[in-house]
Amino acid sequence: MQELLTFTIIGLSTGAIYAVVASGLVVTYTTSGIFNLAHGATGMLAAFTYWQLRFDWDLPAPLALFITLFVLCPLFGIVTERFVMRGLQGTTEVVRLSVTVALFAFMIGLANWIWPNDASREAFLKFFEGNSISIGGFNVSWHRLITFGCAVVVAIILRIVLYKTRMGVAMRAVVDDRNLTELNGGRPDRVSMFAWAMGASLAGLAGILLAGDQQLNIEPLTLLVINAYAAAIIGRLKSLPLTFLGAGLLGLLDAYYLMISDESWFPQTAFGFSLSGIRAALPTIVLFIALLARPQSRLRVGTAKLRDDNRVPEWRTAILGAVVLVVVVVGISGMLTRSNTLLLLNGFTFAMVTLSLVPLTGYAGQMSLAPLTFAGLGAIAMSKLPGNGSLLTLIAAIAIVAVVGAIVALPALRLSGIYLALSTAAFAVMVSKIVFNQRQTFQTGNITVPVLRVPFVTIDSPRARLILASVCFAILGLIVVAVRRSRLGRRLIALKDSPAAAATLGMSLTRTKLAAFAISAGIAACAGALAGDKVSPQQYDFTQSLPIVLLAVVGGVGSVAGALFGGMLLGGNSVLATIVPTVKNLTKIGPGTIGITLGRNPQGAAAQIGDSFRPLTEQPRLIAISAAGAVGVWALDTTNVISHWSFFVASVVWILAVSPNLPALMAAAPARRAMAVAWLAIAMVIAAGVDWGTALDATGKRIILIIGLVALFGVGAQRLLESAPRMHDSSPDLAGLDRDFDREEIELAEQKIGVVL
Amino acid sequence: MTSAPILELRNVRAGYGSIDVLHGVNLTIGRGEVVALLGPNGAGKSTTIKVISGLLRPSSGHLIVAGRDVTGASAGALARAGLCTIPEGRGIFPNLTVRENLLMATFSGHKMSDIEEKTYARFPRLSERRTQLAGTMSGGEQQMLSLARALATDPAILLLDELSMGLAPLIVAELYAQVAAIAAEGVSVLVVEQFARTVLGVADTAVLLTHGSVRMAGKASDIGDDVLAGAYLGS
Questions:
Q1: Of A62, A104, A680, A686, which is least packed with CB atoms within 10 Å of its CB?
Q2: Is the dihedral angle over the CA atoms A373, A379, A385, A391 positive or is it negative?
Q3: In the A/B pair of chains, how many CB contacts fall below 8 A?
């Protein structure tokens, strides 16, 4: 009985923290429609800030608390709303979620930068450390009591603010109908700012309470929030009382499980599998069940959206791209140092995992936060199945994981949007905690995945593995293109565009979703199975999946090129960090910073870059010129006329600054053309003529040089060609042919046709 | 000053993206006047309302309220200045209770107690439902709630967009009786309606919009069935 009371108190105090976290999540969701995955990271940052003020700079606790919770946190929330979230109105749920992932990555990077993990620091003390009070014969620390008190106070304040004040009612009104709020005379922007400020303060409070209870560590503080998702979902993301109830239950469940798992009768294993990971996975199991208990969401009716890039990839472009990719990799792989080869290899692995999101998220519009989990399962299958890395083993591994993917998707099929994303997150955490820590999977913390055995070729060097990876990516990319061009591809697009319309046409949404999940899991599994090296379970953790999802969206999740771009960006970011120590800290916040800009460019970067190359690809003659130039630069390098670095600089300048300008160059007037050609020739001479390997001593400087050259000469040439006089004032008959109609002409035309009276 | 019309659109062009919907609309509403804005689907009626309410910034032309050029003012600012817009569909917040919906009307500067008193006096049914979520009420009750904002906040101008949408004729008649009552208090009203007959009984003036420009404006009683049929069916 005494024990039960003890554990009840422990459980309630854990539940109190969950309640504060979950209520913050609910407040931001109900007032902005954005599920803030970065909520925990905000709390973590607040806890560190509080530590800095309170223990490093020795401010008194009340002052430090006041500054953190009532000045800095609200300020942070306001800045987030104003500069990040406001741009997200009218974008898809995938983009919105990705931006919060970006924020998450940004804040973790920032915390790592300001408070390096290895630094020794003053202890983070509990409130009134050492003081406790006796309740029913059990000593309860003041910290626990304060935690519990905070939850109660938060509950009361939220209830009053949200339901009794006009500001609170307006916060909920904004989610219902932003325009109508304005028509009522409300100020939606101010209301949203207030909501984000409040959310940030709640996250901060939870973070500080948690840091006192646990330790001041970046990861655990950020991730404990995932446990609170379950409470928020029990509250259906809108009911605060249910959220508090859920949080309490979650806390108690955890405490009671801890209590009974110590008993002698409690099984430690089942069917030979260890049960030790169950406790850590409990909240996610609850989350999964709570999600499944949600009522089926109504089928969404599609609206005409022109923001998504839905161009169907051409076979010609796809095959050309695949060949060029492999040729380029073969070409440059000889010049790379061993460590750079491994980094590029890493980039390809990421790119393949990112590619797994293209059919699922890009085509079918289903969000998954667990791509790496499937890659991890693929790696396990590859190493455990017989055959020691034969092609058959790979195929078997892919098939098994694809089936697992479909089975996992089965219960989640009735979910959509954020709920589906959360259920995949729950799945990812469950697999990490329960499957990956088994004796049978990751025996000693890591396993060796055998290198794929290809007939007639031995793959024994990093260079060979790199080429293999590029070939595999090319093949997978072509498969994805084939899927997109098939009947199934059209179904996937239909599923994204309008589930309701697709269903009324008699299309089975269930089978289409299952297929999307299976394909995605299979591709991810292939990426994992091709690891060809020692891998550890940490590599496939849920938190590692988040940057992948983010960069997939940044690169452009709707296309294979976008996946490659996103994967390389992720790989390249670590490249940058290793070779440019001076900007190492900047690269920590890199992915986050990139992602935050998504609000302004939801289509992703690859689409934008692709757009600048589009005129080029329409003219075979120019493609040939562009390719010939690249080959020429490469030939200069292999004949040792120029150094590797000069080759690198020259080819980047050629591809990014010269090639996109070729079409405009051809169309320009002769005088302009001569000027632009001279301008670009100067660029190429500078790039190739100087031995950058010796002229500059650091890789970082060389990269900055490349960016500078591309920007200066590329944009310069563009300007030169753009300012060329247009010939449209030649004849009115050509209006609409060589230029767009202007407004008056349109009206005149409409009147003549009789459209306008 | 008193002779200046309460609201005036001067050669307003507006649209979405590169597509123009209004091609130079001129419109005048006198003080205390009830103007019906008629026209077939796609004529630009709702776009006109959006421009007047401040939700859509015109690409050229001027919006003048009580003699002041307010082109480009935000919807919120116009609303606080006494412009009350009941948008197309239901002008209510479905996930707020009836009372909370009324609380949102207090942004106009009126006291909650006054708003509640006036509303419940006019629509006793809403008083029974004050703690109910607005979205769970019947269509007619929802439209009563949206009209309540116009009734209780005593606006200078009232804009009504498709009040009758999806409602039974009997309820529409009841709602327009309320509009007439509001107009009788001296409020200037602009009513957009597809069903011309329902609204011409209430209106003083009618403006017929086709293809984004004003085709005809005149006394409501002068607009005959032949004119309407011509405009709607295309003659």
A1: A62
A2: positive
A3: 77
A315-600 architecture in CATH? Orthogonal Bundle (1.10)
CB contact under 8 A, A185 and B74: no
Q: A2-115+134-266 with A315-600: one CATH topology?
A: yes
B107/A186 Cβ within 8 A: yes
CB contact B118 to A (< 8 Å): no
**Contacts with A176 from chain B: Cβ below 8 Å:** 93-96
Does A2-115+134-266 carry CATH code 1.10.3470? yes
- The CATH architecture to which B7-82+155-233 belongs is 3-Layer(aba) Sandwich (3.40)
Mutation for testing the B interface, residue in A166, A182, A741 having most B CBs under 10 Å? A182
Least CB–CB distance from B100: residue in A169, A177, A747: A169
Q: Indicate the length of chain B as a whole number.
A: 235
Q: For A436-541, where are the alpha helices, taking DSSP H only?
A: 462-485, 487-497, 499-504, 509-529
> Are residues A172 and B96, on separate chains, in Cβ contact within 8 Å?
yes
List pLDDT tens digits, range B115-146. Answer: 999 899 988 989 999 899 998 998 889 988 99
Are the beta carbons of B76 and A188 separated by less than 8 Å? yes
Residue type for A170, please? A
pLDDT in tens, A672-681: 888 888 888 8
Write down the domain spans for chain B. Answer: 7-82+155-233, 87-148
Whole-angstrom Cα distance, residue A674 to residue B90?
63
Q: Is A596 helix (H, G, I), strand (E, B) or coil?
A: helix
- The closest alpha carbon to A234, from A306, A292, A150, belongs to A292
Measure CB to CB from residue A184 to each of B54, B79, B213 and give the nearest one.
B79
* pLDDT of A726 above 50: no
Domain boundaries, chain A: 2-115+134-266, 315-600, 619-722
Q: What was the pLDDT predicted at A443?
A: 62
How close A602 gets to chain B, by Cα (Å)? Answer: 18
